[in-house]
Amino acid sequence: MLLVLELATPKPGRLRDAYLAYFQRALPAIGRLFSRHHFAYSYLPESVARFPTADRFLAIMREAGFHRVGCRRLTLGIANLFVGRKP
After folding, report:
1. Are 13 and 7 in contact (CB under 8 A)?
2. Interatomic CA distance for residues 22 and 28, integer angstroms
């Protein structure tokens, strides 16, 4: 069994707008204030944006030989839990 917990971007709407404002602007600024690792707080939003969509990642899992794949959206779409099984 494979479980992948990945941050995600909520579906279009007010929550998404607020989340992106926080995640892309506020979080990196706060991180720079309190951490010596400035890159980490800038890299995270870029990493989340580059991760495949849920449908594409499920297809990748199938291509890799996983069966009974699924995705559960968590925390109002801010995270996804992907599940797959191999025989």
Report:
1. no
2. 9
